Amino acid sequence: MNGALGLSLLVSVGTGVLLLRLAWPRGAAPFSLSLGIALGLGLGTGLSSVLLFLWMIAFGPTRGFPLAEVGLLGVAAMAGVPWRRGGRAAPPPTAPAPPGDGPRRGSRLLAFVLVSAALVALGAATAAFLSMLRRHPHGEWDAWMNWDLRARMIFRGGDQWRTAFSAAIPWSHPDYPMLVPALVVRTWLYAGAETLRAPALVAAMFTFGTAGLLAAALAALRSPSQGVLAGLILLSTPFFIVHGVSLYGDVPVGFFFLATMVFLALDGRYGAGTARFAALAGVTAGLAMWTKNEGVLFGLAVVAGVWFTGVRAGQRTGGRLRAFGTGLLPLVLLVAGFKIAFAPPNDLLSTLGVGRTLGRLTAPDRYYLVIRDYVSHVASFGDNGLAGAAWPLAACLLALGLSRDEAGQAWARAGATALVLMLAGHFAVFVSMADELARLLNSSLDRLLLQLWPSALFLFFMVVRTPEEAAAGRLQGGVAAEAGSGR
Q1: Please, what sign has the CA dihedral across residues 454, 460, 466, 471?
Q2: Which of 146, 309, 385, 418 is the most exposed, fewest CB within 10 Å of its CB?
Q3: Quick check: helix, strand or coil at residue 402?
């Protein structure tokens, strides 16, 4: 069974990496293997869930699916042969090493300390993940009543698998998108039977895949030390690991939010001659929609962020948005088709009405309660035993400073705007839609912040100077001061 589970992971990741390499614009940007594997993990698993859902519509949840998917991997591998024979892109520019033996020794020491700390954090996170998984092999409440419940109903349902979306069980949120349940069903089809290792594998893949994507993207776009530092902070956020073990959909959707930000950064740096990175950002934003309903808000927020920052900077954004929409459209159609043909009405939307909504919007106590919880949850986010996870970022900002090259990039402003719009959108939902407002804030606000946390870390470390840049800047400043005192 373990071999079948490993095969299911290898097929999806391998397919994603091969398709990503085929889509990668030749010569426009260097193809980093570590970044390609991290991004390919998300693209491959997302494609696997989509293919399985389409397969079920045509044939039901049958065990012929793994053979079809392995065949797709073979096609992708053969299609990738001409690309592998092509020329390799130039390596990415690296930050210049500071002059002098002392700074070099300092850089090596810093690299050793960061890598050692990251390995310790990875080991501790892995041990904690496995320990909590042994104690809670079924995950937590939302996994019982939604994600894994839906997967079991589909896997056991045979020809009647569509009853998993029955309106007779509204408490289980049958309108939620299908990426997580489909991946669990897919793994069971490979294994040939239900096993608790399947949802655990999906959870581990997205939990540690998110950390890997964050580190690999920053290593490729900024510096290896920046990637290690960001990955260290993410793995050292206890709530991230704890919630990964819960087997919910929040960590997976956070992965796709992060992947979208990474593609936007690649588009900002290398997109002058290609629109492929913008289109790939649309694909990952669409996969976020296929993971959780919050993905719809995220897609709108990204479009608004790109358009707004482009207008403010006097730039034309039509081409970027068209490419983004090209990648997004197939997934929008898939989600819309699922909502129309399979899913019953959403429980929050079903409570909307002119009178009730106006009553909520004109109730000052609702605004006070949401603002109060926003402040308290943001300040204490992370469950790291300190005042909150924001303190390590404040320390990094004070120690390193902002990068002159990255902080003013339009893509970074667009990404930051999208995250702010996400928070504003959640605020509006809480105020206008929630009946049991206090309970909903208490049960969901930390999870909504967790979805944005990897993307926020990526944006932060993209615009903050690397340790090498900070050391070089201080060295140059010291040399200039000595020269000035000598005069």
Answers
A1: negative
A2: 385
A3: strand
pLDDT at 81 over 80: no
Backbone angles phi, psi at 99, to 5 degrees: -70, 155
Distance of CA 317 to CAs 190, 257, 270, 309, 414, Å?
Answer: 44, 21, 15, 9, 11
3-state class (DSSP) for residue 174: coil
Residue whose C-alpha is closest to residue 267's, from 258, 256, 278, 259: 278
Instruction: Give Cα 255 distance to the centre of its chain.
Output: 2
Segment among 2-16, 179-193, 340-354, 446-460 with least mean pLDDT: 340-354
Q: Name residue 130's amino acid.
A: L
User: How far is residue 224's CA from residue 108's CA, in Å, rounded to a whole number?
Assistant: 12
Cα 290 versus chain centre, distance: 13
Residue 274: helix, strand or coil by DSSP? coil
Average pLDDT over the chain reads 86
pTM of the model: 0.91
CB 186 within 8 A of CB 52: yes
- Mean pLDDT is lowest, of 77-86, 174-183, 268-277, 399-408, for 77-86
Q: From residue 398, give the alpha-carbon distance in Å to each of 19, 284, 395, 465, 470.
A: 41, 33, 5, 10, 11
Measured distance CA(281)–CA(49) in Å, rounded: 18
Q: Evaluate if residue 290 carries a pLDDT over 90.
A: yes
pLDDT at position 178: 94
Model confidence band, residue 87 (pLDDT cutoffs 50, 70, 90): very low
